[in-house]
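hiii, so i know i said id send this last week but things got crazy w the move. better late than never?? heres the sequnce for the chain we talked about at the cafe, plus the structure i predicted for it. fair warning i was half asleep when i ran it
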Amino acid sequence: MLPEGTFAALIGPNGAGKSSLLRSIGRALEPTEGVIYLNDRDLKKTPAQEAARTMAVVPQETAVDFDFTVEELVMMGRYPHQQRFRGGSALDREIVQEAIAATGITHLAAQSTARLSGGERQRAIIARALAQEPKLLLLDEPTANLDIKFQVEFLELLCKLNRTRGVTILAAIHDLNLAAQYFEYFVLLAEKKILALGKPAEVLTPENIYTAYRTPVAVHRNPLHGKLNITVLKQLEAEKGSSGKSGLKVHVIGGGEEAVLLLSQLLEAGFRLSVGPVTREDSCHRFAAYHRLPVVTLPPFSPITDEHHARHLALLEQAEAIIVPSLPFGPGNLRNLEAVAGLPASKPIFLLEEKPFPARDYSGGQAQVIYEEIKKKGARTFFDSTALLSGLEAEKIYV
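okay and structure toks below
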């Protein structure tokens, strides 16, 4: 059951039954079993014109068979509200102009639909549905042929219709991240059945998405808007066990977004990685957890304790090479540099300086002193990750 006033996204892989479900609700298909109710009435027994005054449909295919102007096409949305053999009233024409303006095609009102691009035709079809003034709006991939700007504008228009007019909306959407930013309710289909329905956090889980799409993902809150963000994770060659690299043990110091790309490149190159110390909220911790890498996990907003330092030293000892990414250093993580400085000179150490170290030193110069000690012990310096990987190969760190 879809509650009245719901702003819902219908999601699922190709072939899951999204279009068939929408077409059945929209009366284009007759269900082989079961009953569809519209406002507690059997939809099959509801007169077509009465249903059309309640429900509008924007199909996936937007072909227009006859050479209508855009305005004429949009006026068709007013037919369920008009008496037979009577043309559009002043109110009808006003509503049509509002729908055309809302979809950003006022400049195309007199244009032939045969001369429209795919995206322009989609806007015209959406305008026709808006002119219908529906209480329930069904949309099958409404943003498929629209550019990014109009995708956002259109979804914001749907939000406005839902909030200000109480229009119940069910839209089939392929882009999960775009849907997660706007929709408040999700219906997830898999193998022509409902796998999950509810709020975004209840439906958009890695487990549900993998079950439906057979694709591993990571789900986290986007720090820019707080909504869920879904990241597709490719199956790396290192995970398949088919890499031709030696699988050398490499420990990557610290964390932060600066180190995630480097970790990904190293993993793809076939290295066996360990990471840390990092907090559980750190991007590198998410990466390590997903790939089941050894990681030293710190409590949030806590200094590096003796216990965590000992765990870090154990990973450093086990590693066959150490990499210090282009990270900032301050009082909170100074012990990480001290640990590296205390390693024997025979341990290969690689420094990534994508940003000059003085610009990353927030310790009043203490970190700079330790960093120079590490360099004096023979650490190699590289200025981008590609050069670092090439340097590893040149040093015959792997074969």
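btw The mean pLDDT is 88. thought thatd interest u
miss u guys!!
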